[in-house]
Structure formats: C-alpha cells, structure tokens
C-alpha cells in the first residue's frame, strides 16, 4: 500500500511540474518531531495551533513533544466536541501556555454538524475510532465503521482568520491539522499573505479518499506557490517553508 501511495504522489506532482525528492530519504529526515526540535534549537519559543485536537493525547503526533518542551512551547488546541474538550483541558491543565478552545474551524459557517461515534458504543470499536468525527456524513464508511454507531452533534465554528484575530496570533511555527476530511479546506482558506506557518502537518488520507485527488492537487499547488516543500508520510504530509532548513 505504501509503495502504491508513493507512486501516486509522484504521478500527481509530476503532472504539476514539481519534483519530489527521493521518498525514502525524505521519510527518514523529515520526521515531524525531529523537525520541531530543529525549530526550538535556535528559537526562544515555538508557537503552534492544533485544529482537531480530540483529547490532546490519544494518537496525537505532537502531545509528547509539547509536554516535554512545555517551557519553550506555546499553543492553541482546538476541539469542538464537549466531552473530548473536557479531556483536552485535563490533559493540558498543568501547562498554562497551552490554551484549549471549544470550537471547530470552518471557512464559512458558524455552526456545523459533526458525525461522530456514539460514546456509549466506543467499546465495540478500536480505540482509533475515537478520533473520526467529521463534517462528512459518510466519512465513517471510508473507515469501515457501521452507520448505526454514528450520531450527530452540532458544534460552534469559527473561521481560521477570525481565530487568529481573536487570539492575536502573529506567527505560527506549526499548524497541526487533523479534521478527518476538512484539512484541505482549512489550508485553502489560509491567507498566506497575512500569515505563513513555518510547518503545516495535515492528513491527506490517500488513497482512501479522505482527501479527494482533485483537492489534494489544489492543496499541493497552493502550498508550492507559497514557498513550501513537502514530505509525505503514509496518511499525512509535512509542508515546510523552504528557508527553515537553511536558516537552521
């Protein structure tokens, strides 16, 4: 499966006229945590925004890094589901530099329906099913989750631009996104003339269909035009500004 994914990515990028570095090498070098440690090595602090934080710890790609380096890391963690948000608050209670926000990010709407696993049925599913809440009513089908285990929950939303304004965000070292299908819309909604995260870690989900091929190409094109290089993991991607490796 990984081999197929690599070939798909090469084909997509070649069609756009982009060159993909040797995949095996990028996978070894561009480990997300290693890249974050490079960032804090020569900087006073690191500021991040995490969209779709769930409980802050389960299957989380940055939680251990954040708590180990909490004196040099500040951030905003965003989770709209009320029960997960309470867990998120507990998990970051000892770390005042991390601010939990009980909202979802949406480019246009103030409220949206999230389709999530019924908490009372989680015992019938693998642990990772806790993190599959999505705006897409059919998202669970891509993951093999029976429809009778899914419920709807209305959540409040805010645009990414409004979030930056409300919390007076002037720079982002890491934008971590895991929204189970809305990652591409978040990226396409960023005004890169206003703010340009140094690193964006997001879920592409190919070839499962979590992010469609057409949107995937749009996202890659926008990131490339705004000065990002990309390294690909099995289901995720790391976009990083070209100058951060040189600067370090």
Description:
There is one protein chain. With 248 residues, this protein is an alpha/beta fold. The chain is built from 10 helices and 10 strands. It has a 7-stranded mixed beta sheet with strand order 3-2-1-7-8-10-9, sandwiched between helices. It has a 3-stranded mixed beta sheet with strand order 4-6-5. The chain is globular. Residues 1-5 and 11-29 have low confidence and may be disordered.
The tally of domains stands at 1
Q: What is the CATH class name?
A: Alpha Beta
Q: Unreliable runs, pLDDT <50, ≥5 residues? A: 1-5, 11-29
**What is the CATH topology assignment?**
Rossmann fold
The SSE order reads HHHEHEHEEEHEHEHEHEEH
Roughly how much helix do the residues carry, as a percent range?
A: 25-40%
Q: Assign the CATH superfamily.
A: Vaccinia Virus protein VP39
Rg of Cα set: 18 Å
Give average pLDDT, whole number.
88
End-to-end span in angstroms? 34 Å
What is the β-strand count? Answer: 10
Strand order of the largest sheet: 3-2-1-7-8-10-9
Relative strand content: 15-25%
Overall 3D form: globular
Q: Would you tell me the structural class of the helices and strands?
A: alpha/beta
Major pleated sheet:
7 strands, mixed
**What CATH architecture would you give?**
3-Layer(aba) Sandwich
Our count of helices gives 10
Give a quick set of tags describing it:
single chain, 248 residues, alpha/beta, Rossmann fold, three-stranded mixed sheet, 10 strands, globular, disordered N terminus
């Amino acid at each position: 499966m990984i081999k197929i994914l690599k070939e798909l990515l090469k084909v997509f990028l070649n069609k756009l006229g982009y060159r993909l570095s040797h995949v095996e090498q990028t996978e070894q070098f561009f480990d997300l945590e290693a890249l974050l440690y490079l960032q804090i090595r020569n900087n006073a602090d690191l500021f991040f925004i995490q969209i779709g934080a769930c409980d802050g710890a389960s299957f989380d790609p940055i939680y251990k890094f954040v708590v180990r380096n909490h004196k040099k890391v500040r951030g905003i963690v965003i989770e709209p589901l009320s029960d997960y948000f309470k867990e998120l608050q507990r998990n970051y209670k000892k770390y005042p530099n991390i601010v939990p926000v009980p909202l979802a990010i949406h480019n246009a709407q103030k409220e949206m329906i999230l389709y999530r696993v019924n908490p009372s049925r989680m015992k019938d599913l693998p642990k990772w099913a806790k993190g599959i809440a999505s705006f897409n009513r059919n998202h669970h089908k891509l993951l093999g989750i029976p429809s009778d285990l899914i419920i709807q929950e209305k959540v409040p939303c805010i645009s990414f631009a409004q979030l930056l304004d409300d919390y007076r965000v002037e720079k982002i070292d890491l934008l971590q996104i895991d929204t189970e299908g809305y990652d591409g819309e978040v990226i396409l909604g960023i005004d890169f003339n206003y703010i340009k995260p140094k690193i964006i870690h997001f879920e592409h989900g190919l070839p499962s269909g979590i992010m469609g091929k057409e949107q995937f190409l749009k996202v890659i094109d926008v990131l490339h035009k705004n000065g990002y290089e990309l390294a690909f993991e099995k289901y995720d991607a790391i976009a990083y500004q070209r100058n951060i490796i040189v600067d370090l």
